[in-house]
Amino acid sequence: EDKVVQSPLSLVVHEGDTVTLNCSYEVTNFRSLLWYKQEKKAPTFLFMLTSSGIEKKSGRLSSILDKKELFSILNITATQTGDSAVYLCAVGKSGATNKLIFGTGTLLAVQP
Amino acid sequence: GAGVSQSPSNKVTEKGKDVELRCDPISGHTALYWYRQSLGQGLEFLIYFQGNSAPDKSGLPSDRFSAERTGGSVSTLTIQRTQQEDSAVYLCASSLVAGKTDTQYFGPGTRLTVL
């Protein structure tokens, strides 16, 4: 059965800290791994990763994929209170259906 | 429109009633997805539409759930004879060209509460 596991489940840090969020997966017919940020309702897209070892960056956020060890990390440097959210990891499968398999998310709280 | 829109944003209903949830995808996006997010759970795939192809209904939890997409754009998710366990946030997403990109853009969701 396809599975996406995120850790930690929740995390509390102070502004300025650096955090690393983890996502491991066991999914057949892997195509891509995506990270989303969910603050209220709508998950907003952060990154899509398809190749191992190539880091994607957007400001203070970065992510990398290891297709051999079947995991990805999302790094946030110099955290701000606005980074507080649930971070969702999802795996896209190749094939006719493009549904995403989601993890349960990591709840990040950044305290001032 | 600029993004995926959904209506209503909140819906409270009584057990046994039928509800309809609406999704307007991003203009030009051919693929449309419905997901459900229950409290403390990850997003759970429900159904997927791609152009004129037959939808993938493999995620629908029971025959009380159905969805349609008219004219290749707007989609409606219908839940008949609602149960308390149907309470969740129902999220819709769309992507430009299914099979080429997995970047799905989500709407704000409909929070359904079944009393």
Q: What is the count of helical runs of chain B?
A: 0
Which two chains touch over the largest interface? A-B, 25 and 30 residues
Termini separation of chain A comes to 41 Å
- DSSP summary, beta strand count of chain B: 10
Work out the helicity level of chain A.
under 10%
Largest sheet of chain B, if any? 6 strands, mixed
Mean pLDDT of chain A: 93
- Percent helix range of chain B: under 10%
User: Low-confidence segments of chain A, ≥5 residues, pLDDT <50?
Assistant: none
Q: Tell me about the biggest sheet of chain A?
A: 6 strands, mixed
Distance between the termini of chain B: 33 Å
The value of Rg of chain B in angstroms is 13 Å
Q: Round the Cα radius of gyration of chain A to an integer and report it.
A: 14 Å
Please explain how this structure is put together:
The complex is a heterodimer of chains A (112) and B (115). Chain A contains no helices and eleven strands. Chain A is globular and about 45 Å long. Chain A is mainly beta. In chain A, strands 2, 4, 5, 9, 10 and 11 form a six-stranded mixed beta sheet that branches. A five-stranded antiparallel beta sheet of chain A has the order 1-3-8-7-6, with no helix packed on it. With 115 residues, chain B is mainly beta. Helix content of chain B is 0%, strand content 46%. Chain B has no helices and ten strands. In chain B, the strands form two sheets. In chain B, strands 2, 4, 5, 8, 9 and 10 form a six-stranded mixed beta sheet that branches. A four-stranded antiparallel beta sheet of chain B has the order 1-3-7-6, with no helix packed on it. The radius of gyration of chain B is 13 Å and the shape is globular. At the A-B interface, strand 4, strand 5, strand 9 and strand 10 of A face strand 4, strand 5, strand 8 and strand 9 of B.
